[in-house]
Amino acid sequence: MDQGVVEEWLSEFKTLPESAISSYAASLKEKASLVPAIYKVIRENYSDLLEPVCHQLFEFYRSGDPRLQRFTLQFLPELVWSYLSVTAGRDPHCSGCIEALLLGIYNLEIVDKDGQSKVLSFTVPSLSKPSVYHEPSTIGSMALTEGALANHGLSRVVYSGPHLQRETFTAQNRFEVLTFLLLCYNASLSYMSSSSLQSLCQLSSRICICGYPRQQIRRYKGINTRMSVSAEFLVQLITGIHYALCNGESDMGSKALDDVLYRAQLELYPEVLLVGNAIKSSLHGGALKSNKEGSRSIQVEITPTSSRISRNAVTSLSIRGHRWKRHESLENSIDSPESGPSGPIPEISVTGVSGERLANGEVLRNRTEGEALGGSEAGADSRAEVRRQKSVRRLMEDGVSPAGRVPY
C-alpha cells in the first residue's frame, strides 16, 4: 500500500504544468499517508524507490516554492541519519542518491536568485536584551552606568559565508555541509511536523551514543560504530531539540538533549555544553507543553511593557535631584549647631544691627531658641547673622580687616 502511494506521488508531479504547482503544493497537506510512506522508503537503503524519491524531493526544492521546499526539509533529519549510518558502515554505494540530494540542497542554499554567494549575518545576544535563554528582568538591577550608556544600542554582528560549492562529500567537508543544512532546517522549525521533530531527536541520540557505553543504556541495537561530529553540528542539533522540547516532544527531546550533552562532555566541546546546559536550566522553572496540536512556540518570560527605571539609573532628572539634595544638605549643615568644624575656632565678635557685639556661637544659640519659640523674625535674623559670620571669615582668610571688627 505504501509503495502504491509513493508511486502515485511520483507520477502526478511529472505531468504537472508549472501553473498548477502552487495549488499542488497546498494540496500536499491533505495526503496524510504520503509522509509516512516516504519515511519508510528512506529508511530502507536498498529500496528501488529511493532514487526516484530523492530526485523528486530535489525537484521540489529546486522549484522555489516555499511550501515544496519545506516539504523536502521535513525529511532532512532522516536523510542525514541514513547517509551517516551508511557511511559509518563503509558502504557508500548505497547512499549515492541521498548524498546527491543533500549536496544539491546545499548548493542551492548558498547562492541567491542571481547565482551570487550568500553572506549570512547573525546578531550576538546581549544580556540587556531578552532572548530564549534569559530575561533581563530576572538578572537584577541593570543600572545605566557610563560604560553601558556608551555601548547602548551597539550590537555585535557575526557573518557567515560565502560558502564554497561542493560536488562530493569528503571527511573534511562532511560536517560543514551537514551543519549548514541543519541551519536551513532550523530556520523553518515552526513549519515542521511532529514526525520530523521526532526524527530530529532520534538523529541526535543515535549519532551521539553509537559506539559508546550509553548505547546499551538506551538499548539501541543499530550500528555500534562511533561517528565523529563537530561542535557546530551539535549546536545546530540542540537548537532543533529545544524547539521539540517545548512543542509536544518533551520525552524524546529530554533524552536527546541528555545524549548530546553526554557526547559533548566526552569530546570537551565548550560551545555545546554552554548552550545545552543553558537550555536545560531554563526548562527547570517552567512546564513544557504537552499538547501536540496546539500552537507551536517556545515558552519564554514576557518582558513587561511598563517602563521600569532602576533607582540607580543615571538620568537628567536624577542629576538635577542630586544637585538639589547636595545644596540642601549644605544649608542644613550650616544651620545645624552640630555641623561646625571639629577643631577650635577663634572667637570673633561682630557688631549686630542694634550695635551689640555678639560673640561667636551666641547667634546660633539665639537662633535655636527663636525657632523653639516659633518666632519667624528671630529665625530670619539668625540666618542673616550666620551669613555675616561667613563673610567675615572669608575676609579674615584673605587678610582684609572687616569694618567694625574689634582687634582680637
Automatic annotation (TrEMBL):
Record localization: Cell membrane; Cytoplasm, Cytosol
GO cellular component: cytosol; plasma membrane
Region: Disordered, residue numbers: 328-352, 365-408
Keyword Cytoplasm: yes
Coiled-coil regions listed in the entry: none
GO biological process: phosphatidylinositol phosphate biosynthetic process; protein localization to plasma membrane
Biased composition (Low complexity): 336-349
Alphabetical keyword list: Cell membrane, Cytoplasm, Membrane
Family stated for the protein in its record: Belongs to the Hyccin family.
Protein's name in the database: Hyccin PI4KA lipid kinase complex subunit 1
Source organism of this protein record: Scleropages formosus
